[in-house]
Specification:
heterodimer; A: alpha+beta; 5 strands; disordered C terminus; B: 4-stranded antiparallel beta sheet; two-stranded antiparallel ribbon
């Protein structure tokens, strides 16, 4: 299993959805795309690099050669994957507490979805339907999602500063430098290897 | 429906794995002798899993050599699950699938072309266990093959940014270096601060995106 790379955890969850309800799920996601305020909770959580939901129609599993047997499925499936910072528990807890309505919108048509509250039923649902990774790559293991965003903002501000303030007299430069630090204090911070965290309660149980 | 968010691309693929047993020759990862047969009685899905779990991580990953990869994952989907009890119909997949999912900057075709050109032998070694991959001989074939296995993303959420990876890595390097620099400048005079800042700019070279910078997949902060 390789769900962890540096500060990022990669989760895969695959859940069945009646094929005719999958159409409603498409509409629900379309609604979210048209009205992205529904994603505000995810943005506020600020621990996700990238996440995605993919509805796989029951007739959409790739069939590449006559020698490959065709799938004959009752259900369509929804694959959820996310790259986030922190542990499995922190992520599921955050999801459930921060955006319960959003989760219910994203999974409401899936078979057996227990709703995001109470938490333990949601825990069990995710744990049961999770698929472990065999290889996970993260381009910046030492950085969190917030580091990537803040680094980009700081870089632009630092570049603008370096192009306009170097010719100032020393005292004026110091004042401008202090203003730069004040205005960018939320973007500052060294990075390093993240602390070790538990892969998931499921993995711990298997190791026990 | 939504494979992209700005310049970020979310690739989702299910590559069907050949049913039955593998006859595998030569492993770049686990064999010291070319053309040495290994695990001839191993099923294709187990052979793929063995290969994937032996892949180097971080800077050594094939994705560190595939330009603009933010995140990528490979796993074998053995089957679908049911915890819902006996009052629901149950499905069972007739094939196992290699799931190759990636988040990267830019367009799909050049990304996959770069992945093939920089990792051809490893890509062949992994995907040889997938249905119809014997027809893949060139980068164009690989692009077409992966596209034939692609499932369109329904909802793609980008919680980071969609800049080229080299720009992200440079910015992270500068953020780290500048934060360390700020600590060393506390209490210094105006002249010393200005002098120190000029020296800092010389070291980090803001206009050179490629160097100095972090490397893709770098898992340790280099001593300054």
């Amino acid at each position: 299993m390789s769900n962890i790379s540096g500060k990022a955890y990669a989760i895969n969850v695959i859940t069945p959805i009646p094929w005719w309800k999958a159409l409603w799920q498409y509409i629900a996601f379309k609604f979210v795309v048209l009205f992205p305020s529904n994603l505000k909770g995810l943005i506020n959580l600020s621990l996700i690099h990238y996440a995605r939901w993919t509805v796989i129609g029951r007739d959409s599993f790739p069939h590449l050669a006559p020698s490959q047997p065709k799938e004959d499925l009752h259900y369509s499936y929804m694959m959820f994957e996310s790259n986030f910072n922190g542990s499995w528990d922190q992520y599921i807890d955050s999801f459930s507490f921060a955006i319960p309505e959003g989760l219910d919108l994203f999974w409401r048509f899936n078979v057996g979805y227990p709703k995001s509250i109470p938490l333990h039923d949601f825990y069990d649902y995710i744990r049961f339907n999770q698929v472990e990774n065999d290889h996970f790559y993260n381009a910046y293991p030492c950085a969190a999602s917030n580091d990537v965003k803040s680094a980009s903002a700081l870089f632009d501000n630092l570049k603008a500063f370096s192009e306009s303030k170097l010719e100032l007299e020393d005292d004026e430069f110091l004042a401008a430098y202090n203003a730069l630090l004040r205005d960018n204090q939320q973007h500052l911070g060294s990075m390093d290897v993240g602390p070790a965290f538990s892969p998931s309660p499921f993995s711990n149980a298997k190791e026990a | 429906m939504a494979n992209t968010s700005g310049q970020a691309y979310g690739l989702t693929t299910l590559c069907p794995i050949i049913n039955g047993y593998a006859s595998v020759f030569n492993s770049n990862l686990n064999s010291n002798t070319d053309s040495a047969p290994i695990n001839q009685n191993q099923s294709h899905d187990k052979e793929i899993r063995r290969l994937l779990q032996a892949l180097p991580s971080d800077e050594g990953s094939l994705f560190a050599k595939t330009d603009n990869t933010y995140f990528a994952r490979l796993f074998v989907l053995n089957d679908v699950f049911f915890q819902q009890g006996n009052d629901f119909k149950r499905d069972q997949l007739k094939s196992k699938y290699l799931c190759f999912n990636s988040n990267f900057h830019g367009e799909l075709e050049p990304y996959l072309t770069g992945m093939w050109n920089n990792n051809e032998s490893l890509v062949r070694e992994i995907w040889q266990h997938c249905v119809a991959f014997e027809q893949v001989n060139h980068a164009e074939d690989f692009v077409a093959y992966i596209k034939s296995c692609q499932i369109d993303t329904t909802l793609f959420f980008n919680g980071s940014n969609d800049k080229p990876l080299a720009e992200q890595l440079k910015a992270l390097y500068v953020k780290h270096m500048f934060s360390e620099f700020v600590l060393t400048q506390q209490g210094k005079s105006a002249a010393e601060t200005k002098q120190g800042f000029k020296y800092f700019l010389q070291r980090v070279q803001l206009n050179n995106i490629d160097s100095p910078s972090w490397k893709p997949g770098q898992s340790q902060i280099q001593a300054n």
